[in-house]
Design goal:
Number of helices: 21
Organism: Pongo abelii (Sumatran orangutan)
Structural class: alpha/beta
Largest sheet: 9 strands, mixed
Radius of gyration: 36 Å
Strand order of the largest sheet: 1-2-3-4-5-6-7-11-12
Distance between the termini: 128 Å
Number of strands: 12
InterPro entries: Leu-rich_rpt, LRR-containing_protein_71, LRR_dom_sf
Shape: globular
Pfam family, one: LRR_6
Protein name: Leucine rich repeat containing 71
């Protein structure tokens, strides 16, 4: 019993004296090791280190990229990316289905009420609706955001996840509460998307955009040194744009040659803004700054032509020069090129004379109506560069120059040149280099003929503003008749001015309707179908 009672006293938790001393030494060594090397603190299980949104590489799938970026920005509840619902055809139940419905009427009514309640909550939840190309998650072609406020951080996320969407063509922001700051951020986002995408359609309906916002959008359309080349349609309906804002939009249309469709319906535009819009759609006077920029572009263009192909102009001067070069051979032509180059290198004064001549050449081109030089060799270079600008190799420029030689009349050459310019206007030609007209010491451009659709319904335009649009429509009618034999845009095909501050029986409005009737392609097709129905 004594041995059994002593056993609990000799418990293993009471170490021997020697063991206790050694364990104390081990403890001191552990303390020193802990002081020398701090222990690494591991994150709790299930938690990850916060990741930076700048480090994330977008995959091109909007649903995945947007969710990941929102999470990294700290959003716990964010809009979901969903497919845009399409309208379903009307459903006509059959007799058998109606019989089954009457049998299960109580349960059916309960499930329908529950589904309808859930659908209502889902409807009011913020979402990003997308339309896909061939049901591919990487081929988002349209984005629709409606009814919830888009913050600046959301636009920052869009600036990162939208450029990888190579198929994106349309952005619709309807009633998203844009402010001056968020609209500025969005306008800065457009060039970033345009470098990788082709945003062709933009809708900013019902966003309380005022004159300040219209100024930002007008500058996005075009300035003296930049121009949007991808946007085709712009919807600014149901906003607060007044005369000043309409003037900014008109300034953007001066040098823009890509926008085809513009809606300013349900705004606050009066006669002053209407006259501004009507002015840029017919021949308008260039400002002093635009004239100076035009001359600079002409000088720069001439310098690029001479540095790019110094011998091509000499071969294009006359047919006899080309025949002589073929008879003598390539060696003699290269020898002549070398002697010409050495002579120009020896005489530095000639460089100053060339600059003076180029400045005089630019002035002569300003004075001539078609923008061509009165000398023999220069018109051929103008034809070559305006018809095929951007083509570096010389053989591609020769066919266009040959076309100019075959047509003997100067008027026919200008018509051919103008038609070729219009075909590639959105890709090559700066609008300031278009043919101009000189009147009373002033320079006039033909105006914007690319815009086809203009909607100004429900503004505050009176008969004074109508007179401006009447003059525009009459001018474009004359311009289209003069260009009937050539290709290119001819001006407005659809102009809506209804529900403004004038009577529907107004004479100016009646004349506009009469002139625009044969230009409207939809109404022309309807008249053709009616004629076919009466005379099959």
């Amino acid at each position: 019993m004594s041995s059994e009672q002593s056993a609990p006293g000799a418990s293993p938790r009471a170490p021997r004296p020697g063991t206790q001393k050694s364990s104390g030494a081990v403890t001191k060594k552990g303390e020193r090791a802990a002081k020398e090397k701090p222990a690494t603190v591991l994150p709790p299980v299930g938690e990850e280190e916060p990741k930076s949104p700048e480090e994330y590489q977008c995959s091109g799938v909007l649903e995945t990229d947007f969710a990941e970026l929102c999470t990294r920005w700290g959003y716990t509840d964010f809009p979901k990316v969903v497919n845009r619902p399409r309208p379903h055809p009307p459903f006509v139940p059959s007799a058998s289905m109606s019989e089954k419905a009457t049998l299960d009427d109580p349960r059916l009514s309960g499930s329908c009420s529950l589904n309808s309640l859930e659908s209502k909550y889902v409807f009011f939840r913020p979402t990003i609706q997308v339309e896909l190309e061939q049901e591919d998650s990487k081929s988002v072609k349209e984005i629709y955001i409606r009814g919830w406020k888009v913050e600046e951080r959301i636009l920052g996320i869009f600036s990162k996840c939208l450029p990888p969407l190579t198929q994106l063509q349309a952005i619709n922001l309807w009633k998203v509460g844009l402010t001056d700051k968020t609209l500025t951020t969005f306008v800065e986002l457009l060039p970033l998307c345009s470098s990788t995408l082709r945003i062709a359609h933009l809708s900013l309906r019902n966003n309380n955009i005022d004159d300040r916002g219209a100024q930002l959008l007008g500058q996005a359309l075009s300035t003296l040194h930049s121009c949007n080349r991808t946007l085709v349609s712009l919807n600014l309906g149901f906003n607060h744009i007044g005369d000043e804002g309409a003037g900014y939009i008109a300034d953007g249309l001066r040098l823009n040659r890509s926008l085809l469709w513009l809606s300013l319906a349900h705004n606050r535009i009066q006669d002053k803004g209407a006259l501004k819009l009507a002015e840029v759609l017919r021949a308008f006077e260039l400002t002093h700054t635009e004239v100076v920029e035009r001359r600079r572009l002409l000088l720069e263009k001439g310098t690029q032509e001479r540095s790019r192909s110094p011998s091509s102009s000499r071969h294009g001067d006359s047919k006899t020069d080309r025949e002589k070069s073929q008879m003598v051979g390539i060696s003699n032509s290269t020898l002549v090129d070398k002697t010409d180059k050495t002579q120009t290198m020896k005489t530095p004064k000639g460089l100053g004379k060339k600059k003076e001549k180029s400045w005089e050449l630019a002035k002569k081109e300003e004075k001539s109506g078609s923008g061509q030089s009165p000398t023999q060799g220069t018109p051929k270079k103008e034809d070559a560069t305006k018809a095929g600008k951007g083509k570096v190799t010389i053989p591609e420029q020769k066919p266009s120059r040959a076309k100019g030689i075959k047509i003997g009349s100067r008027e026919k050459r200008s018509i051919l040149l103008e038609s070729e310019l219009v075909v590639e206007a959105t890709e090559v030609v700066n609008p300031l280099l278009e043919p101009v007209e000189h009147r009373d010491g002033k320079v006039f451009m033909p105006g914007n003929k690319v815009l086809l659709h203009l909607n100004l319904i429900r503004n505050r335009i009176t008969e004074v503003g109508l007179e401006g649009f009447l003059a525009t429509v009459q001018y474009q009618m004359q311009f289209s008749k003069a260009k009937s034999a050539s290709k290119g845009p001819v001006g407005l095909l659809w102009l809506s001015l209804a529900k403004n501050c004038f009577a529907p029986q107004c004479p100016a409005y009646a004349i506009i309707q009469e002139l625009m009737l044969p230009r409207d392609p939809i109404k022309a097709k309807l008249r053709e179908d009616e004629a076919m129905a009466f005379f099959p």
